[in-house]
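On clarity, I found the account of how folds are encoded harder to follow than it need be. Since the whole study asks how a given chain folds, the encoding of that fold should be made plain. The format is easy to grasp once an entry is in front of the reader. For illustration, here is how one protein appears when written out as sequence plus structure tokens.
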Amino acid sequence: MKPFSTAYDAIKKLLKSIFGKKDKTEEAVENTEESQLQEGEQIAGETAEATEQAEQTSEAAAVEEKPEEKKEEPAIEQVLASIAEEEGIKEEKVSKGELDEQKKYEEEVKKRAERAAKREAEDKKKEAAEAAAEKSGDVKMVVDPVTGEEIPMGTLPKEASFLKKYMRIPTTSDDIVVAMNSIIEHPDMPKNIVILGRNGFGTVKVGEDFARSFYEMGLVKSEKIAKTKAKQLNKMGLEKLAALKGGCLIIENAGLVSFNKLVEVIKDSAPENNNYVVILTGEIDSLANFFEENSDIVDSFIYLIDIHKIKERGMMHLARGYVKEKGYKADKAVFDKLKANLKSMEEGNIDRFVGRIDEVIEKCDKREEAAGGEKSKNIIPEDAN
């Protein structure tokens, strides 16, 4: 949020326009007319008192016939001081601390804009290369995150069935395939994952799908999954994670985790200790800032999964894949209703959308159970109401 100084200056300008210099006789007439026409609409508290003081000053000046410049200034400053006092903000803070905050805010906006422009340019370049490769029929080549070498794209391992629903989402599907194949190829390297979303996204469900796939593929020894928000983790003792041994830890809003705490988690998750995989989820710029400021831990997070660009079409691919993954069937009318549900959610909020689909599946189960007989797992439009 922008500092209070902007609003403070705007109020000051407004009050100066109210108490601006005029011919004193004309000002007295206008003040009398204004009090008659706008009675009951004066500014509350200090502003009403300041107006009365300004009128008294003007009348005194008219009698003495001596010009009084800036007689209104004390009234203006008094009102501004009262407003600042009500807001609990001292003028020194507005002039110093708030200026530093403004500068920091502007630098962050600039940094994010530069990152966004860079990502867009890279995406366009990548899309152009993919289109050319597809047209030529050549084998798609990608960069191995561990070695940096170009390797054939490959396909999603069959055992990673929980990740299959993401395969029709551009960019995200490539990141997932590359990560899973590289983890298989380099079993001694850290398996930790970073899931990059946009502000307002919920991507914990994606982290859960990685955790389940890791277990199905034998990449972790336990199917246990622990989920925690970064702020909770910052206050938590790691002895609570002892029961997670061999499983996966998902950290939500990971850009807010403290450096020291994450270092503790990395050590605790090492093979010689509790041997679990760490999955970070969060907003792309917050995570980018975190890794820029804490470069010492970058090597512990090799695999980045980009979901920040997912749009409505990708969300509907996800919905169809998720319904199929759960063993249900649904026609176009059902998916049209789910598509309409997206308008009431933050764009790309996978957690909320999957939660909505779970509600529809639950209604289907209850309806079929009430009807008796064998369950067909066939979702109808009424289930999505």
